[in-house]
From TrEMBL:
Annotated transmembrane regions: 7-30, 50-70, 90-108, 114-132, 139-157, 163-182
Protein name: Uncharacterized protein
Keywords carried by this UniProt record: Membrane, Transmembrane, Transmembrane helix
Organism: Lutibacter flavus
Domain of life: Bacteria
Amino acid sequence: MKHNLTLNGITGIIFGIFSIIFSWFIKLFLTNFSSGVGVAGFLPISFFEIILGVISLLFILISYFTVVLINKKRRKKIGLKGWDSKAKKIRKIFLALLLIGGIITLLLVKVGHIKLIIPTSLFLYGISSIVVKKYTVGNTILLGTLFILNGLLAMVFTKQLFMLWGMAFGVYHIIYGSLGFFKNQEN
């Protein structure tokens, strides 16, 4: 079955690499802020939060457009034109949960539960991955389940939040993409 929106193959690998870099950068930025080292250590908290939000938004946009551009090349290669109905549904599901996640994040910041942002993002992405299974050919149920498990671990091991987030979005996507890549090489 051909479809034209996927994180299987090189797209998942690149997305995973971006995620690891983002996770490492945010962790470094937060560590510098909390220890008072470098420029980040001298920022007022409100400005620091704005910078974190902007960096996160940039990550989302860069990742999204990278996935779209790679899939556009893939669509041309396999002879598909435009987004098929399944790809549109997948995008709508992830966009809806991204918007819900954004609202939840703002509420968590407002009430001071910042440590719940990462577990929440893992839960929402995991749920999205499970919901889109009927529109995909990859094993998104397993991917979604792993994300949800990482979300639970992130709630327990709060000192490991960025490692768990990086493992989920980075390592899991690299593995998922690699499995898809090698599977496509066999076909």
